[in-house]
Write the structure tokens for this entry.
Amino acid sequence: MSEASIALNRFGLGARAGEGGGAAPKTALLRQFERFETLPAPIAAYPRTGVLAAEFAADYANVQMIGRDARRQGVKAEVATEEARKAARQKGREYYSQAVGARAQVAVFSETPFVERLVHFWANHFAVSADKQQMIGLAGGFEFDAIRPHVLGRFRDMLHAVERHPAMLLYLDQAQSVGPNSPLGQLAAQRQERRRVGLNENLAREILELHTLGVRTGYSQADVTEFARAMTGWTVPGLGRGQGARLARGAGEAGEFVFAPRIHEPGARTIMGKSYAQQGQAQAAAVLDDLAAHPATARHLATKLARHFAGDDPPPALTARLEAAYMKSDGDLPTVYRALVEAPEAWTPQPVKFKTPWEWSVSAMRALGTQEIPAQAMLGLMAQLGQPVWRPGSPAGYDDIAPSWAGPDAVMRRVEAAERFAARTRETIDPRARAAELFPGALSATTSQAIARAESPAQGVALMLVSPEFMRR
């Protein structure tokens, strides 16, 4: 790969016709920071998280009210609320579809594809999965409102925004976490309702293991428990099912982050040898600040960035360089990105990554000049290729290594999708000329000859989309 091709395809989301690589690809990548739009038109048209969450909270309250009325009348609540629950689920699916369509539109038409790639990277790092009913309508808002505004800021600020977002609090059950010695916890003990309330460690564990320090970095189960105690009170009124979320109603706007003192575990916490005596919300916030500044967090994030841009087995020298940039800049992400762009390991001429289904699909649409991207079509495509948007099924997110995406069946699905792309392309494309534009100075003679021998332009386009140059970056 030439440097121009690397800039377009490894750092960016795939070249477009006539785009070219430019004379100074590294400078061009860094200049994207100045032009990045936090809320481009398709995303600006999508409701903000507060609006969505308020709607879903109202729907949830309506279902609860119908259920209570039914029980008073001796009718099964499940039967009485079926229509209301069905309508709420449908609304969530519609918002999810709209958000996926907006994400695809932005990625395909973006003039700052390097930064868009970074948005997708961080959204997968802080993964939520739109599987729960409460989650499906909030997953898009999570990326749009918690990730995008901070992709060119400090990691600390992104971390705080992510952990306070309703999607994260609901996905990892933080909204229902209650301190055993909090006022509500003590009341539950008196009423012998311990089974209904209690401490939930999910979010605390994943913050330590996935979001910041990484696995096997010196924290213990006791640290997880202490952090979970510090985080009690971080909740979402009107959306959670636990007593904690119910108690938080009236403490703030429905569906938005609030701190509920009555479910917060009192007292100082000791986490990884440090005591946190802060009161209320400030206690867990102080822990997040320290985690963001921790050397293990720098190493964990540097390793993941190096893996994403320089190969499934991250070069140790690049990881060390990114780690140092993070620590010296106090977690300033553009400083880390600049170190990445300037690192020779990221510009290895050989392709170092196999594209994920999302990357391949977006690059195909950019390559073909796709103008219309129906949201439902994008949903179907990503489901067929095995990477439904915002549905990794795990807080660890989707894998970023070739074995997860390069199996024979997965490749065959791309071949089928490539044939459909080619058949639907309205523009008359000379596939040999287009391939040379997409991979400046990097198109192999083998691929060029294979495209030239195609029986039709459509077949040539399909071959281009499944060529080694297109499948890898």
Observations:
- The radius of gyration is 24 Å.
